[in-house]
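To whoever picks this up:

The parser on our side crashed when reading a file containing two proteins. I've narrowed it down to the boundary between the first structure block and the second sequence. Both blocks are reproduced below exactly, byte for byte. First block:
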Amino acid sequence: PPEVIDALLVKINLAIKHVRKGLNRQAVNALEQFQHKTELFVRKGQLLQAEGERFITAAEDIIAELSAPR
């Protein structure tokens, strides 16, 4: 549904904005919010379980990369 896509894109776009500014911790926070929203939409039946799992796994991978020591 469009409202699900819009809500998730807000968090993704916020994370991208933070990464571009070098604000990795804030980007991680936005991605964690993305994960929570994804879980909520799956629980409410607005997003398929398989889609939600793919989104959460992708966010986890990005969080790990952003959190890695430089």
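<<boundary where parser fails>>
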Amino acid sequence: EDGRVRVLVTASPDGTVRSVRMLMPSTSPSLNSGTTRPFNGARLPAFPPGSDPNGVTIELTVDYVLIRSPR
């Protein structure tokens, strides 16, 4: 499946993911789930000192491209 998915990830300065919100889903539930699921309960690397103590917001766009091999 091909498609583009855009999500908004909010994390604490220590890297703990607080939330994942779909901004632009693809038409494929599999791609949408494959983009959000890895962040559920995840912990990213800690952000540098001085990061906003209320959290860091990351907007992530993933372009999925299916490459078919010739037969």
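After patching the parser it read the second block fine. Residues 29-36 form the longest helix (8 residues). The radius of gyration is 15 Å.
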